[in-house]
């Protein structure tokens, strides 16, 4: 079942460009910094978060790019860092997880929180709600919780009502992503994670690029302009703060691989 918003035309959703140009070829240069979302950007969306297919080459591509960019690459995901490493294996690269609640610079072995932990009550309440509504998948994370409604589209309105009430009671932010409603601790989002990375010495003086597909990536797209960079929307055109677009996950992989090929040739590798 697609999200009802997917079926609205751009004109119905508001004004804005009808399409965006593709990004220029990625250059491994001292001024390049690269931030990558995971689901819908590096891997195709699957029906269940555990069912995503990670291409065998992906961990190596991420590691090689991070190495070529001398650490100026970070994954910025709604997933927890632990969930990402379950799928990709241990990563030496910088990562922000749980929508910016977890922050781990490259080479660090500990995760710095950028938010307070989610009150346990919120997961308990959503677990009860889920059980009463056909057993929706509840995915607790250190600083957020996701409730996946793909298999229970009829329960979306009541899920939103329950989540909005919890958000009000506990001062949380509500995010409505692809077939998922998430409650997130305040003070962290993908924009604040990007800003925190850009304040680090390895990112100083760079022009950041962020690739993301979901509405939850808009927080990052919005901060990029002030940081001298721009966002690349992955997927069909929709209202967005991004300035470039790639049509799908395959195009992202091609764009990244081309950068590595060019770099390897110039280095004589
Ligand atoms: O910021 P991301 O790395 O894109 O993570 C966003 C959410 O991704 C996961 O959910 C999404 O992908 C699932 C697998 O393809 C899909 O089943 C679900 O419908 C999508 O919303 C993850 O489970 C969430 O925790 C992330 O916040």
Given the structure, what is the number of helices? 8
The run of helices and strands is HEHEHEEEHEEHEEHEHEEH
CATH topology of the largest domain: Rossmann fold
**What are the bound molecules?**
the ligand O=P(O)(O)OC[C@H]1O[C@H](O[C@H]2O[C@H](CO)[C@@H](O)[C@H](O)[C@H]2O)[C@H](O)[C@@H](O)[C@@H]1O
Give the strand line-up of the largest sheet: 5-4-3-2-1-10-11-12
CATH superfamily of the largest domain: HAD superfamily/HAD-like
Number of domains: 2
Largest sheet: 8 strands, mixed
SS class: alpha/beta
Share of residues in strands: 15-25%
CATH C-level of the largest domain: Alpha Beta
Helix content: 25-40%
Q: Got a strand count?
A: 12
Uncertain runs are 1-13
The gyration radius over C-alpha positions equals: 18 Å
Distance between the termini: 46 Å
Q: Estimate the global geometry from the Cα principal axes.
A: globular
The average pLDDT value, as a whole number, equals: 93
**Shape-level CATH architecture of the largest domain:** 3-Layer(aba) Sandwich
For the structure shown, list the relevant keywords.
Rossmann fold, eight-stranded mixed beta sheet, 269 residues, alpha/beta
What does this structure look like?
Belongs to the trehalose phosphatase family. The protein has helices at residues 10-13, 58-68, 81-88, 120-132, 156-170, 190-198, 218-224, 249-267, and strands spanning 32-36, 73-76, 94-97, 102-104, 112-113, 137-140, 144-148, 173-177, 180-184, 207-212, 230-234, 244-246. It is of the alpha/beta class. The chain has 2 domains: 28-115 and 188-267, Rossmann fold, CATH 3.40.50; 120-184, 2-Layer Sandwich (Alpha-Beta Plaits), CATH 3.30.70. It has an 8-stranded mixed beta sheet with strand order 5-4-3-2-1-10-11-12, with helices on both faces. It has a 4-stranded antiparallel beta sheet with strand order 6-7-9-8, covered by helices on one side. A hairpin with a 7-residue loop joins strand 4 and strand 5. The longest helix is centred in the C-terminal third of the chain and has 19 residues, at 249-267. The model is unreliable at 1-13 (pLDDT under 50). Bound molecules: the ligand O=P(O)(O)OC[C@H]1O[C@H](O[C@H]2O[C@H](CO)[C@@H](O)[C@H](O)[C@H]2O)[C@H](O)[C@@H](O)[C@@H]1O. The site of ligand L263DTV3 has 24 residues, from strand 7 and strand 9. Residues 37-40, 45-49, 52, 77-79, 139, 146, 148, 150, 177-180, 182, 214, 216 line the site of the ligand O=P(O)(O)OC[C@H]1O[C@H](O[C@H]2O[C@H](CO)[C@@H](O)[C@H](O)[C@H]2O)[C@H](O)[C@@H](O)[C@@H]1O.
């Amino acid at each position: 079942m697609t999200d009802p918003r997917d079926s609205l035309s751009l004109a119905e959703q508001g004004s804005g460009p009808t399409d965006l140009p593709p990004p220029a070829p990625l250059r491994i240069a001292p001024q390049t910094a690269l931030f990558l979302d995971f689901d819908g950007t590096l891997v195709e969306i699957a029906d269940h978060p555990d069912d995503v297919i990670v291409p065998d080459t992906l961990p190596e591509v991420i590691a090689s790019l991070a190495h070529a960019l001398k650490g100026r690459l970070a994954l910025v995901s709604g997933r927890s860092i632990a969930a990402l490493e379950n799928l990709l294996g241990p990563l030496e690269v910088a990562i922000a997880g749980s929508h910016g609640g977890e922050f781990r610079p490259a080479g660090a072995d500990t995760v710095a929180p950028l938010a307070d932990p989610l009150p346990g009550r919120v997961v308990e309440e959503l677990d009860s709600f889920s059980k009463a509504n056909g057993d929706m998948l509840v995915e607790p994370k250190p600083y957020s919780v996701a409730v996946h409604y793909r298999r229970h589209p009829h329960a979306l309105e009541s899920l939103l009502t329950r989540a909005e009430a919890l958000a009000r009671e506990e001062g949380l932010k509500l995010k409505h992503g692809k077939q998922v409603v998430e409650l997130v601790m305040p003070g962290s989002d993908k924009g604040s994670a990007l800003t925190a990375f850009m304040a680090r010495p390895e990112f100083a003086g760079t022009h950041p690029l962020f690739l993301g597909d979901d509405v939850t990536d808009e927080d990052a797209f919005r901060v990029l302009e002030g940081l001298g960079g721009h966002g690349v929307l992955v997927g069909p055109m929709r209202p967005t703060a991004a300035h470039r677009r790639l049509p799908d996950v395959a195009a992202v992989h091609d764009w990244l691989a081309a950068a590595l090929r060019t770099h390897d040739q110039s280095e004589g590798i």
